[in-house]
């Protein structure tokens, strides 16, 4: 039985980045804050544009979701009123109350898991290192939501 051996090419990224200066700029090994890489105007522009795009898309998706949920409730009410479906409101009320109790229980035990806490800490460190970029993003996001 002939066994076919696959050969793989291995790409040494350290050697690759030495030959490609643009690669080194984008994926620098010392990827600290953006303040070290870009001036204030560039950071504000990058943050503002990405924030505006995110806010604009968030607004459009939010309107679509609100329309779909509202339209669904409207259609359910019409179907209930005309007799196509019957809603057991006591069961709905019981399930809503159960969900409220679970939310109260989870919010009272205000402890974060270690994984979530480490991710939150990473985000806070990133925000502190990139204050200008974050400010531009927040402003752009609000503008995108308003447009």
TrEMBL record:
GO terms for biological process: autophagy of mitochondrion. InterPro entries: FUN14. GO terms for cellular component: mitochondrial outer membrane; nucleus. Keywords: Membrane, Mitochondrion, Mitochondrion outer membrane, Nucleus, Phosphoprotein, Transcription, Transcription regulation, Transmembrane, Transmembrane helix. Pfam families: FUN14. It is found in: Mitochondrion outer membrane; Nucleus. It is a multi-pass membrane protein. Binds directly and specifically 1,2-Diacyl-sn-glycero-3-phospho-(1'-myo-inositol-3',4',5'-bisphosphate) (PIP3) leading to the recruitment of PIP3 to mitochondria and may play a role in the regulation of the platelet activation via AKT/GSK3B/cGMP signaling pathways. May act as transcription factor that regulates SREBP1 (isoform SREBP-1C) expression in order to modulate triglyceride (TG) homeostasis in hepatocytes. Belongs to the FUN14 family. This is FUN14 domain-containing protein 2. It comes from Rostratula benghalensis (greater painted-snipe).
